[in-house]
Amino acid sequence: MKNIVIDSDDIAKFFYERLIQSGFVPSEEETLIIADIAFDYLLSIGIIEEIDDE
Q1: Which InterPro entries does the UniProt record give (predicted)?
Q2: What does the pLDDT read at residue 30?
Q3: CA distance 54 to 40
């Protein structure tokens, strides 16, 4: 099975680009909040699991 790394900063960048394409102008803070919500959603439905790299 292939491991996939999902970073909330990558999610934020993706959402920011898509929102701009759709005519919205989100702030950096708004985009980070949306990314955190998306990440939390993926965790809550079991699509991903959070791994501590420390």
Answers
A1: YozD
A2: 94
A3: 20
pLDDT tens digits along 1-33: 777 788 889 999 999 999 999 999 999 999 999
Question: What contacts 6, CB < 8 A, 6 or more positions away?
Answer: 39, 42, 48
Virtual torsion, Cα 46, 49, 39, 44, nearest 10 deg? 30
Q: Where exactly are the structural domains of the chain?
A: 10-44
CA distances from 45 to 5, 11, 38, 48 (A): 17, 17, 11, 8
Q: pTM higher than 0.90 for the full model? A: no
